[in-house]
Structure formats: structure tokens, C-alpha cells
Amino acid sequence: MTPPDAHSQTGQGGIRKQVVLPFGKSLRISIQSLRVRFFRNCVTVMTLVLAVAFLAFILISANIASGLLESGGATARQMLIRAGYDLAEDALRVGSSPKDHWIVGLSLLVCTVGIVNAQLMSVTERFREIGTMKCLGALDSFILRLFLLEASIQGVIGAATGCLLGVLAAISVGLIRFGFPALTSLPVAEALASLALSAVVGLVLSMIGVLYPAIIAARMQPVEAMRAEE
């Protein structure tokens, strides 16, 4: 009897059976791979954490300043100007400065390059593992799925941790600069939107960073992978 996760295909060479592993099994393999390379993965996640934390800090700080400006009137405006914010006379909102945009962009770029480099090194270390799986019949899509699952797990952990650190840092700096009103005037909906944006950016960066190394691993021929390891 054909197992439920097997597909029979008829071609010129006869009948072939292709065993398709369920998603849960792929997830367990990915988690096990992350555990085996725990410290290397920690470096990758920390790179993502720092980038997301900085982005969240910039966005939440702007939300705090906007909340103060809307609720505090002229007094809050003068307080923000003394704190270094460049505000026009009729400004009703506080946005990030061009300098902040450049710094955030560079940090995200460095984060992406770091993830790509770490994943390429991971592929190099896993030549024999990839070759063995391919010799056992693993398809390119299965190898690609493993790397994308690992990147997704790293992205979720890194983005969540980065958002938490970023919002804590922004609130702490706001309390030091403006006192308790920085917390009470913080618009919750806008802050949540900023955190969601930071988390999505972190997850996307993780996926982009692993895409090229994952394609290389998926397209690798079994013989080449086994030979490169020796």
C-alpha cells in the first residue's frame, strides 16, 4: 500500500515514488539544525535584533514627541526644540529627521549583508548534510523550505526581541528627557503600528538575507556537495 505522503508518477523510466515530508517534520528538522548551530545562529539573530531595535527606537521616539506636541501645546513645543527636535511653527507632527533615515537605512543594509554572509557560511558547513538529503531523494523545494523555515524562526525571534528592546529604550529616553508625560501622551495605536512595521521589516530582512544562500543550497548537485566536504 502506498503511504499517504507518497505520490506515484509514471514516466519514461517507469513508476517512481516521491515521498513528501509533512510540514511539521520539516519544522522539527529546521529547529534541530538551529540547535546544532546555536552560537552561530545567535550572532545572526543579534544582528537582526540590533537593526530592528534601532528602527523601533526611532519610530517610537517620534511617536512620543508627536504625542507631547499634540497634548502639550506651546510648552511641549519649546521642550521638544530644546531636546533637539527641528520643528516648524505650524508643525502638528514630529517625524524622523533625514539623518535618522540614513542611519536606519545603513543599519538595515549592514544587517542584511551580515545575514547573507552568515547563511552562506552555514551552507558551506552543511555541504555533506545537503548532499546526503539529496542522495536520499530530497527535492530542491525541500532544501529551500528548510532554509526559509530557519530564517523565519530567526526572523520572528530577532524581530520580537528587537521591538521589545527598541520600545523600552525609547520610553526610557523619553522619561529621562520629558518626564512622565512622555509615557502618558504616547499614542498607543501609532506605537503599535510602529512596532508592527519594525517587526515586519525585521522578518522581511531575514527572508531576503537567506534567499540567495538557500537557492545555492537547493540547486547544489549531490556529488558536488559530497566532494566539496572532503
TrEMBL record:
Asked whether the UniProt record includes Membrane among its keywords, one would answer: yes
Q: Could you tell me which InterPro entries the record lists for this protein?
A: ABC3_permease_C (IPR003838), Macrolide_Exporter_MacB (IPR050250)
Q: What is its main location?
A: membrane
Picking any one GO molecular function of the record gives: transmembrane transporter activity
GO CC, one annotated term: plasma membrane
Q: Which residues form the ABC3 transporter permease C-terminal domain?
A: 103-222
Where on the tree of life does the source sit, at the highest rank?
Bacteria
Q: Which residues form a coiled coil?
A: none
Pfam hit, one: FtsX
Which keywords, in A-to-Z order, does the entry hold? Cell membrane, Membrane, Transmembrane, Transmembrane helix
Q: Where in the cell is it found?
A: Cell membrane
For membrane topology, the record states:
Multi-pass membrane protein
Bilayer-spanning residue ranges: 38-60, 102-121, 142-171, 191-217
* Family named by the database record: Belongs to the ABC-4 integral membrane protein family.
The protein here is known as ABC3 transporter permease C-terminal domain-containing protein
**Natural source organism:** Alkalidesulfovibrio alkalitolerans DSM 16529
